[in-house]
Design a protein that fits this description.
Length: 407
């Protein structure tokens, strides 16, 4: 049974991912991770996160996957001392220097090799296994056929992990210098400004908001590279994933919302479990894709599992994101006597709106919000106040942690 691995940009997102079916989460401290703009976790927060996950039989992997410079190693060494007793289930590393220091200072914590390391062959994987790694997160540029070849030529003790959903990078394995060049933010140290997503004037080759910064466009048979990638979505290919021998299915998105963490974890959990119950009878449910289209995303594609990046670079045809359904509230409890759910507001909605209740293990259940009551049971027309508590009759039982979203 492959592991379902979800992103956790903060504690709220971690709780959502685990509640909605993730087997493990990956997260970062305040430093040395590749998503420095996420809220991330203090050292104390890492200990709390591990405790929370382990109490529920789940795992936590800590990303330490930047490529640090020489003057950062003293701080990195102190950081390793601080998290030594945290109980994290693995460190995700990309840099040989970081991996070496981790092996010296934290020999009790398994090493997972990040996709940033760009592993594309059995030789890469065998090197890292000899080094002591227990898992390799393969480069996203690999096809199913290439993954199977790698699988056949590595030790069965070495696990393979691949991304199955989320943002992709136009640069090989995310190794991009564009952000550093344009705004002085090093993408390989967690500070990417995502300039590949910006709007460019192709005639002058200048970014629209930076007309004075001229760039030379060089195009060859492989195309040009200042472009935006689609998002990966493999929900329609669960049988191929399940039979691939991949040990861990990874969802990208530490910068995305708690709603994103919940929906993506829930959808892939339902599909994986349905296949596991009876592979021969498994049938793709189109509602899975409807669920995944409810989150913030770009145009979807299947990454490079079936297409070569040389032949099909998976570039977007339109700019910007396809916005997610409004996250209206989180369920606190359910009053069986009155048939009312008690919720905490996240966004305003009004009486008469069509809404959906999202429960772990189910797709969204739609109904009309015919009545809304304040905490004191008085009827109200809407929920205008952030984090207000309100009550609402629902045609379905409600569990703590359920999500109410716009229908």
């Amino acid at each position: 049974m492959p592991e379902l691995l979800a992103p956790a940009g903060n504690f709220e997102k971690m709780k959502a991912a685990l509640l909605y079916g993730a087997d493990a989460v990956y997260l970062s401290g305040k430093t040395f991770g590749m998503r420095s703009a996420a809220t991330n976790f203090t050292v104390e927060g890492i200990y709390d996160a591990v405790r929370y996950a382990h109490e529920r039989g789940k795992k936590v992997y800590l990303t330490v996957n930047i490529t640090p410079h020489t003057d950062e190693y003293e701080a990195l060494s102190r950081y390793f001392d601080e998290i030594s007793d945290s109980g994290v289930d693995a460190l995700i590393v990309a840099d040989v220097g970081v991996a070496t220091l981790a092996k010296e200072k934290l020999p009790h914590i398994p090493l997972h090799v990040s996709t940033q390391a760009g592993c594309v062959s059995h030789a890469d994987c065998n090197f890292w296994h000899r080094f002591g790694a227990t898992r390799v997160v393969l480069a996203r540029e690999l096809s199913f056929a290439e993954i199977q070849k790698i699988q056949s030529r590595i030790s069965p003790e070495l696990e393979l992990e691949t991304f199955i959903h989320g943002s992709m990078c136009v640069s090989f394995s995310g190794r991009c210098l564009l952000s550093q060049y344009m705004v002085g933010r090093d993408a390989n140290r967690g500070e990417c400004a995502q300039p590949c997503r910006w709007e460019y004037n192709i005639y002058e080759l200048a970014e629209v908001k930076r007309p004075g910064m001229r760039m030379q466009l060089t195009e060859n048979d492989l195309g040009s590279y200042i472009m935006a990638s689609r998002d990966m979505c493999m929900i329609e290919h669960i049988p191929e994933l399940m039979e691939s021998g991949i040990a861990s299915f990874k969802i990208e998105g530490r910068m995305k919302s708690a709603y994103y963490a919940a929906v993506t974890s829930n959808t892939y959990r339902m599909a994986i479990d349905a296949y596991q119950r009876d592979p021969a009878a498994y049938k793709y449910n189109p509602q899975y894709l409807t669920e995944l289209e409810s989150v913030n995303h770009r145009e979807y594609c299947t990454g490079y599992f079936f297409d070569s990046p040389m032949d099909k670079p998976q570039l977007v045809s339109q700019g910007g994101y396809l916005a997610e359904n409004a996250y209206l509230a989180t369920a606190l409890s359910y009053d069986e006597a009155s048939g009312q759910g008690i919720f905490m507001q996240r966004n305003k909605f009004s009486r008469g709106d069509t809404v959906e209740l999202l429960t772990p293990g189910k797709v969204g259940q739609r109904f009309v919000a015919e009545e809304i009551f304040a905490e004191d049971f008085s009827p109200i027309e809407s929920t205008p106040h952030p984090y207000m508590t309100f009550r609402m009759p629902t045609p379905f039982p409600v569990k703590e942690g359920d999500i109410l979203r716009m229908g």
